[in-house]
Amino acid sequence: MNRPVIFTSKKLARATIMAAVLNFLCIYNAPTEALAQADPFSAERNRMVENDLIARDISNPAVLKAMGKVRRHLFVDKSLWNEAHADYPLPIGDGQTISQPYIVALMTQSLKLKKEDKVLEVGTGSGYQAAVLAEIVQQVYSVEIVKTLAEKAQRLLPSLGYRNIKIKIGDGYRGWEEYAPFDAIIITCAVNHIPAPLVNQLREGGRIVLPLGDSSLFAQRLMRGTKKGGKIELQHITGVRFVPMVGESQKKTFGRE
Ligand code: SAH
Fold first, then answer.
1. Is 131 left (phi over 0), alpha (psi -120 to 50) or beta?
2. Which domain holds residue 111?
3. Is residue 2 in a domain?
4. To the nearest whole number, what is the mean pLDDT of the chain?
C-alpha cells in the first residue's frame, strides 16, 4: 500500500535547507563559469608554464606564478590568440615583436627580483613583460619609443587592473631619471653597448638584463649584470634575437658614449 506523502514540519525544513544549498551552489558556480569564459586560455597558460618553462630551467616560484597568471593572449591581436602561448615571438604591430614566453621568463628570473623592487624596462612593446614584472615587484617604469605602442599599453594595462606600471613615450636610452635609482633594469631591445644613463640610474648592487651585440644581425648574447663599484659586471646567459634599440643608441658606438 502506498503511503501518502505528508510533509511534516521536519521534512519541510529539510527540503527548504536542500533548496537553499542548491541555490547557493548555483550562485557560487556562476562566477566560476563566467571566469572560465573570460579566461579561455588558462589551460594553455598552464601547459606553457609546464612544458616551456618548468621543463627547461625556470624555477623561480614568483616568475612561474606571474607567467601563469598574466593573460598573454590579450597582448596580441585577436587573430593571433590561438598562437599566443606558442614557444615563439609574435608580431605586435609597428614591426615589433613580443618575445617568446621562455625568454620573458628567463630574463625576469635573471633579474633576481624582490617584492619591494623598483624596476625600469626599456621597450614596453605590448606591455606583456611589464605586466609580468608588475605581478612580482612593487613598481614598474617602462619607456617605449613608438608612440602608438606606448599608448596602447597605457590603455591596456590599467584596464587589466595594473596600478603599479608607469609608461613613458620616449627614448629609453636616457632611462627615466625622475624615478632613479632602480633596483633592476631590463632592456628588451638589442644594444651594442649599455647606455651610460642606464648604468648611472641603476643602484649599486642592482641587476640589469639585456640582449647585447650587433642588432643588425638580429643575433645577440643575453647578458645579466650587477653594478659593483659603479661598473657593470656582465655574465653571458644564452644566445637571443631581439629587434634593435633605435634612437640615440644607434648614433653611438661601443665604448664611446
Ligand atoms: N617588452 C616588449 C617587447 C619588446 S620589443 C613586450 O613585452 O611586448 C622591443 C621594443 O623596444 C619595441 O616596442 C621597440 O619599439 C622598443 N624600442 C626600440 N628602441 C627603443 C628606445 N630607444 N627606447 C624605448 N623603446 C625602444
1. alpha
2. 9-254
3. no
4. 88
How many separate domains does the chain show? 1
Domain of residue 78, CATH code:
3.40.50.150
| Residue from 80, 146, 249, 250 whose mutation best tests the ligand 1 pocket (most atoms within 8 A of CB) | 146
Q: pLDDT for 172-220, tens place per residue?
A: 999 999 999 999 999 999 999 999 999 999 999 999 999 999 766 668 9
Could you tell me the distance, in angstroms and rounded to a whole number, from the CA of residue 45 to the centre of ligand 1?
A: 24
For ligand 1, pick from 246, 250, 252 the residue to mutate: most ligand atoms within 8 Å of CB. Answer: 246
Residue 21 CA to residue 208 CA, distance in Å, equals 54
Please report the sign of the dihedral spanned by the C-alpha atoms of residue 101, residue 187, residue 203, residue 161: negative
Q: Report if residue 63 sits inside a domain.
A: yes
